[in-house]
Specification:
Elements lengths: L7 H8 L7 E5 L5 H10 L6 E5 L5 E2 L5 E2 L6 E8 L12 H17 L4 E3 L3 E4 L2 E13 L2 E11 L14 H7 L11 H21 L8 H8 L6 E5 L5 E9 L5 E4 L5 E4 L3 E4 L2
Parallel strand pairs: 1-2
Antiparallel strand pairs: 2-5, 3-4, 5-9, 6-7, 7-8, 8-9, 10-11, 10-14, 11-12, 12-13
Length: 273
């Protein structure tokens, strides 16, 4: 499969002037866009930097996992945020905000309906389309967040890890005959950054209060809520029950068999059948 290309100027033009992304850069390949942006943040780069790549050789996910896709078939996007007006206790919502933005962008460019798997996966059915990683780092000018997204665009399912999918595969699966290769990387990047910018501005505009709309947007798209789940927790323990809600910090509330509600703030969540 021929790889797609990313052009930073085309992305900037597509975004227009009303965007929080003041410095959009693109490279054909890199080890990790999030690692690159973290290094730039530590060197004093201001908020608004975005680094895009069509391939990562050392893409990273949660819990030390890797993110892999054939060159030119996925979009790697990392943004530098410095939400100084938002209490740090609310920064945990940023990965959830990114999930909503990805799902909205996917719908915008392809009509594919995506669901969110708490806390950081974007699914179509039970197939993983995208992953998100928010990392808080210390810089000379204060704390910052590097928000990374890896989204499969034109990859074939057989070229992805087991259980993965791509926009091209989902568009082809609908059998409409329209644009069977799926959307190209540039319009996907524009849609993602537009939705992410809108969400970030709205969130910072209410000092990160999830009751300002983000919590409800996430609940509406979250495929984890209402399902039986197993949460594998740090330390080797786990809880099993029904995911019933999010708390004020964006943590998952699981109702276990005896009726107790357990708060899950970290770990791996598995959807049970």
């Amino acid at each position: 499969m021929t790889g797609d290309a990313l052009d930073a100027q085309q992305v900037r033009t597509g975004l227009g002037p009303d965007t929080p992304w003041s410095d959009v850069r693109a490279v054909p390949t890199t080890g990790s866009t999030s690692s690159d942006v973290a290094d730039l943040a530590r060197d004093g780069t201001p908020e608004g930097l975005v680094l895009l790549a069509a391939h990562q050789s050392r893409g990273r996910g949660r819990l030390g996992r890797s993110w892999t896709a054939p060159p030119g078939t996925s979009l790697a996007c990392s943004a530098l945020l410095r939400p100084e007006a938002v209490p740090v206790s609310r920064w945990s919502w940023l990965s959830l905000l990114a999930g909503v933005a990805v799902a909205e962008a996917v719908d915008d460019v392809s009509g594919v309906s995506a669901l969110l798997k708490w806390p950081n996966d974007v699914l179509v059915g039970d197939r993983k389309l995208a992953g998100i990683l928010a990392e808080r780092i210390e810089t000379p000018s204060g704390h910052a967040v590097v928000l990374g997204v890896g989204l499969n665009v034109t990859a074939r399912p057989e070229d992805l890890p087991e259980g993965g999918t791509s926009l091209a595969a989902e568009v082809a699966g609908r059998g409409t005959g329209e644009n069977p290769g799926g959307p190209a990387l540039v319009p996907v990047a524009v849609a993602l950054l537009r939705r992410l910018g809108e969400g970030y501005r709205a969130w910072t505009g209410v000092t990160g209060d999830p009751a300002g709309g983000l919590a409800e947007d996430y609940r509406r798209r979250c495929g984890t809520l209402g399902r039986r789940v197993r949460a594998d927790l740090p330390g080797g323990t786990h809880v099993e029950g029904t995911a019933v809600d999010l708390d004020a910090a964006g943590r998952l509330v699981v109702r276990v068999v005896d009726g107790r509600q357990v708060i899950v703030g970290a770990g791996d969540v598995v959807h049970l059948r």
